[in-house]
Amino acid sequence: MKPAPRRILVAEDNAILLSVLHLNLEDAGYAVTVARNGREALEYLSRDTFDLLITDYQMPDVSGGDLLRAVRETLHNRELPIILCSGKGLELDFAHLRERWQLARVFFKPFSVREVLACMRQLLNPTVAPAAAPALASG
Amino acid sequence: MNSPAGNLSFTRRLIGHYLVFALAGLLACISIVMVLALRGELLDLAGMAVVVPLVVTIAGAFALQRIAHVNSKIEEQLQRISVGVASQAGALVRLPDAAPVSHGWNTLVQRVQDELALAALDAKLGTFAGTLQQQRWEQTVNSVPDGIIACDRGGTVTHANQSARQILNIGGEAKLVGRNLVDVLEQRFPSLAGPALEDLREGAGILSREIRQGEETAAGVWRVLRTPLLGETHSVGGSVWVLRDVTQQKLADDMRQQFVTAATHELRTPLANIAAYAETLTSLHNIDAEKQKGFYNIIRGEAIRLGRFVDDLLNVTRMEAGGLSLVRSEVEVERLVGEITEKVAPQSQQKQLRFETKLPPKLPKVRADKDKLAAAIVNLLGNAIKYTPEGGWVKLKVEADAAHLRFVVEDSGIGIAADELPKLCQKFFRSRDSRVQELTVSGLGLAFTQEVARLHGGALSVSSELNKGSQFTLSLPLA
Prior knowledge:
The complex is a heterodimer.
Chain A: E1 7-11, H1 15-27, E2 31-35, H2 38-47, E3 52-56, H3 64-74, E4 82-86, H4 94-100, E5 105-108, H5 113-124, H6 134-138
Helix pairs in contact in A: 2-3
Chain B: H1 4-7, H2 10-38, H3 46-82, H4 100-143, E1 147-151, E2 157-160, H5 162-167, H6 173-176, H7 181-188, H8 194-201, E3 207-212, E4 221-230, E5 236-245, H9 247-283, H10 289-320, E6 329-331, H11 333-350, E7 354-358, E8 366-368, H12 370-386, E9 393-400, E10 404-411, H13 445-455, E11 459-465, E12 469-477
Parallel strand pairs in B: 7-9
Antiparallel strand pairs in B: 1-2, 1-5, 3-4, 4-5, 6-8, 9-10, 10-12, 11-12
Helix pairs in contact in B: 2-3, 9-10, 10-13, 11-12, 12-13
């Protein structure tokens, strides 16, 4: 029996980018839900369960930062792997953000969709992790 | 030679010697006369023999003194010089006699007195000049906007200029002198603590520190520079401190930083779209031809957006550097409006907006930079079209009175929230309105339009009501 597709939530206010991410993720076999801002994403997160969250940092209404806090602190969801895709540069302390909100990975725009997909595969199926991280995979 | 004889004048010594010899002669004479008298000879003449030589001798002494009078006076004065009294001009006295020696002496005295007077004047002038120089130096130090403070080796203030007292909020120099400078700094800047404070306290070597008044840059930022104060033998005799207000510089730095951050973000967004679509076109093989065409169009659109942003950026950079200048010529307003309409018509048709222009029958000519004015109005119309939902309207009205020509751009668009109106012309401003988040905005257009209006001596004004529409008025003086 074919396993149910992994559920991915993508929060991105740039509609053009959101649409192409949607297409690529569906093509890779994921069940994709898209949110146009942090508020929408939060609504989805409080209703459904997801296997992974991809979010932009700078968004209107509820920003990426607010969303991260809500996921980890309000919803107490500490397990959800999160990939942050940011249009900001080094002015944000990403090392601090990664540690504080246990981010799986941070991508800077413009990023490679292929790299994001590879990262997702690794996060969702640790057994197919690259040889560089066998200890992590077996643990 | 300070023997008593040496202190008597030459003339007196001369007279003295003359008298000794005279008296000796006299005594000899008297003795002879007495002997003759005792023998009974010349008895009647004995009295005369005593009196006459005596009178002659005394008369001779007087005559001698009269002759030696001038020399005597000169000698007296020379003696006074020898014991040092004559260093004052008054110690030398002119002689009343008309004798050549007196005349010579008087000339000499005059010269000496002149010289002494000159020297006294010179000394007075020197003191005055020194005071002037000191005053000039103090004025110079007090005119410097930086605070300048000198401290001794123990860190105690010995001198401070006016700016230093102002920066440290201390009234008179007296209140600052004698106090430990680092203590004063600690009191003045509560944010100064820990290792930064210790560094300032330790040693006298070159040190530069930035002190912030509060969290916000606008509250005040100072740069404190300490350098050793070198003595004559190049030994460290204390320290010199310079306190400089760098708040404006820091604010400009912050602005520049914000500009770069915002510009980077504006560049990253279209770049991210281009990269993602180009990558998708090469990696996904099941995209139909129609969709592929759409993707290529998106890439092209994003590239155009990038190009436009770079143009805007260049305009604003030129504007910042003061390099945006006008090339004025006589502009026919009807023609200008015609050209502008041609440029924006396709955009408004695409959104199915009603676009109207309204001009009075007679319009004055205006001296303006046609290209920049057109770009500014196209900018306003572009915004109106962008923020007006399909089916709405956009108007360009031209109004003129005796003093002004006004271009009014009106729309039935989404409007602008009252709290966002003042920030509208700031570079990279972006409304929080969720309806405009997906629109392509550089955030530079209005800043440019406002600058074009300003350069023409005019102004840009805005009125708007949320969900009803906005009205932008670019007004130019006609004179």
